[in-house]
Amino acid sequence: MRKLIEYDHLSIDGRMSGDAWWAGQVKVVPNDNHFAYQLRLLSSAVGLVLGRVTYESFARTWPTMTGEVADKINSLPKYVASTTLTGTTLTGTTWNAEVLAGDAVEAVARLKEAGDGTLVKYGNGPFSRALVEAGLLDELHLSISPFVAGSGESLLSGIRTTAMDLTKVTELGNGAVVLTYVPSR
Fold it and tell me: In the chain, what are the domains?
């Protein structure tokens, strides 16, 4: 069975969005450790799971990028959860993507059962919450950036209580860390 890992960026106060993120006040400069972490995360990936908003953002950005991380992200199949998209052509290409048919949570459960390897989910929001509540998330990697956002949406706000165990802390430099959690079983 495949493992589902979610990777998210957060501020120290647990915010994934807000004025500080979008107004350019956040100056988190990735270094070699950030890229090495992504390569390790993607090394066993057999696909990416994305919500519509993340897919549209990634599809406008990643196909124009180069380097090892971009090559890996661009080559992987993308599975997109959306109730509004009918296709995945945004930039003149489908970017190796397909919209998950039917209920997205059930579709991810089928993807997990379809073989070995890892599915990496980027992005957050209602789809992330639904995957956690359905018990489909195997690991949560939280990249914590060294700033206080002060406002904005919390990663899993509105979710029922879910116990998690911290399994690893990875220092990336520039004051950033990645905290790896697994659901308590």
Answer: 3-183 (3.40.430.10)
